[in-house]
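Possible race condition, two jobs.
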Amino acid sequence: MTFCPDWLMGSPHLDTSSWLYLWVYLVFFNGLWVLVPVLLLVRSWSSLKQLHDITPDDVTTHRKKM
C-alpha cells in the first residue's frame, strides 16, 4: 500500500537501482508487513476451527475425566 503505487509509477523518490534497495529494503522488509499478518490470520483461523469442531459430548466427556 505504501510502496507499490510509487514503484508502479516509477517515482524518482523510490531508488531501485541498487540490489540492496530493491531486494532488501523494498521486497524483504515490506514483505514482512504482508507475511506476518497472513501467518497470524492462518493461526487464528485454525484455532477457531478447532474450537468449533468440539462438540458438547466432547466437553462433558472431558469434564468427567477431570
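Job #2 (started ~2 s after job #1):
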Amino acid sequence: MASINSFWILSLALLFLASPLLQVAMCQSDSDGAVDATDEASDIGIVGDDAQDYGGETFTSAPGIETISVFPKNSARLVTAGEDTELLVGVKNNGESSLNVVAIRASVHLPFDHRMLVQNLTAQIFNNGSVPSSAQATFPYLFAVSKFLQPGTFDLVGSIVYEIEDNPYQTTFFNGTIEVVEAGGFLSIESVFLVTLGAALLVLLGLWIHGQIQNLSKKTKRAPKVEVGTRSIDASTDEWLQGTAYAQSLSSKSKKKK
C-alpha cells in the first residue's frame, strides 16, 4: 500500500516538473536505487525517424503497467481549437521486463456515444523511451483539435503504445471529458447569443412597463370630477321622480316663486 501511494505522489511531482521540450526524466527505482539517466535524458522521448509506428492498430494492456495523466496548469481541461494542448503521461513499470514506449495517441469522440468518432489526433512517436523494470517515467503529449471543431464538451481517449520483448501493447491513460473553446475570442458564439437575447428581453420589458404606465395615466385623467354644491338638475335625469311626492313638492315651490 505504501509503495502505491509513493508511486502516485512521485508521479504527480514528475508530471508538474517535467520539461515541455519532449524530454522524459527517469525517477528513482523502487528496488535498485536511483536510475542514472544523465547520459540518456537527452535522448529519451525524442522523436526519431526510425521509431516504430503502429498506426491505428489496437493492442491489449500488459500486466503490471500503471499509468497516470494530468493537464499541467489546466485543471479545467480547456482545449483551444487549433492550438497545442499539453498532456503529461506518467508510466510505472511493475513488470519483470523493461518496456519501450513507442507512441502516444488519442482521439476525440462525442460524449453521448463513443462510437461517433470526431477526430483522430496526431500520434506522438518516441525514440529511446525505455522504462526499466520497477522504474517510472513521464512522457509529454502535445495535441491540437481541429480549429473548425465547434466549441462544446467532448470525450478524449488517450492511449500509450509500448513494447515488451518486441511484443506491442497499449494502455489507456485517459478517458474523460474536455471542453473545447474558440481561439482568440473571449466570448463564444453561444455567449454572445445569450447576452444579445437577454438585452432584447430587457428592452421589451422596459417598453411594456412604459406602456402600462401611460395607460394608467390616461385612465386617471379621464375620470369624472364630482361637483359639490348647488347644481342644476337635468329633467331628463329625473324622469324616474315624476308622479312622486318629491316631484309635486318641487312643482309647488316653482309656482310660488312665480
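The chain has a mean pLDDT of 75.
Logs attached separately.
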